[in-house]
Design a protein that fits this description.
This protein is α+β, with helices and mostly antiparallel strands. It is built from 6 helices and 18 strands. It has a 9-stranded mixed sheet. Strands 4-16-11-18-9-6-5 form a 7-stranded antiparallel sheet. Strands 7-8 form a two-stranded antiparallel sheet. It is globular and about 55 Å long.
Length: 305
């Protein structure tokens, strides 16, 4: 009689894989493969532009990339170490694509648009000061998180997260993520079949070409325009350790975000905070339920659910 298969040491399901389950099946390619993008850009925090890279042939070209804010050194190195220590006092659950997770939030079925508090008893106590500090920044004015999700990434597990858009039925306008332990890259992409118009910034500098001339021109004085299919574009947002990232507007609703396996070079933890959508705020269809969830969340008495 054949021996029963050993339990898997990862949380992957369906087509998603990590290094653990890929090694179990004897190697091979990862289960989820996405089309390679050909137009690579890097987000510039100072100008708000996505600037083309030389490697992909788009050096000197850029386009506005709205909906991104970053607060560098949001926590100190000592605070970072203490946050990670406190997180590790609670259990981490195995998750997809080599990640581990801790969820502090209501039980939700996004497909059926149903939710209930379940075992949710608040955000963790160590997040109280973090949330208070967020409110000191204008971009996070009146930001009241009702959910916190901690994700643990490690290169030995081949950790990653697939391109996705966060739900907008329950979760509101701003997605806020605290990047801990190591730098990484958030990769932004679209599936749209539309065309993206680029602006030439060659030999002019990205600041001057956008701030002083709404119609950048090349050195010969003619209009410089170039276009690229949206589904070929990938924008890299470099995230330093201890930085706080806010996605809103177009970056929140129109561009999928992902962390590719090759961008996890050392241990990383990300704490993502989500606010309620208008439907769950006062005056909304589910305003009373939203208020109940918010009171639970901001009690800061939670354990992972």
């Amino acid at each position: 009689m054949a021996a029963a298969p050993l339990p898997r040491c990862c949380g992957c399901k369906g087509v998603r894989t990590c290094l653990v389950c890929e090694l179990e099946r004897g190697g091979g390619t990862p289960g989820t493969l996405y089309p390679q993008k050909t137009a690579h850009f890097i987000y510039c925090l100072e100008t708000g532009l996505a600037v083309g890279t030389e490697k992909s042939g788009f050096a000197g070209w850029a386009f506005p990339f709205p909906g991104v804010a970053m607060i560098k050194d949001f926590v100190s190195a000592d605070e970072e170490a203490e946050l990670v220590r406190l997180m590790d006092q609670d259990d981490w659950k195995l998750s997809q694509s080599g990640r581990r997770k801790q969820d502090y939030g209501p039980k939700v079925n996004f497909r059926k648009q149903k939710l209930k508090p379940g075992g949710f008893n608040g955000l963790p106590s160590f997040s109280r000061e973090i949330v208070q500090r967020m409110g000191q920044h204008p971009i996070l004015e009146r930001f009241l998180p009702v959910e916190q999700c901690n994700l643990d990434y490690h290169p030995e597990r081949g950790s990653a997260i697939d391109p996705h858009l966060d739900d907008s039925w329950l979760w509101g306008e701003r997605l806020v993520s605290l990047n801990l332990l190591s730098p990484t890259v958030l990769s932004m992409s679209q599936d749209s079949n539309q065309t993206l118009q680029l602006l030439s910034v060659a030999q002019q500098g990205t600041r001057n070409s956008t701030a002083n001339d709404p119609k950048p021109r090349d050195p010969e004085g003619t209009d410089s325009r170039r276009s690229v299919p949206c589904d070929q574009v990938e924008v890299a947002i470099h995230l330093p350790a201890r930085s706080l990232l806010v996605l809103f507007g177009a970056a929140r609703h129109q561009w999928k975000h992902a962390i590719h396996r090759q961008h996890i070079e050392s241990h990383r933890i990300c704490a993502t905070f989500r606010e309620l959508s208008a439907e769950f705020c006062p005056g909304g269809k589910h305003g009373e339920l939203g208020q109940e969830l918010l009171e639970i969340a901001l009690s800061f008495q939670g354990k992972p659910v």
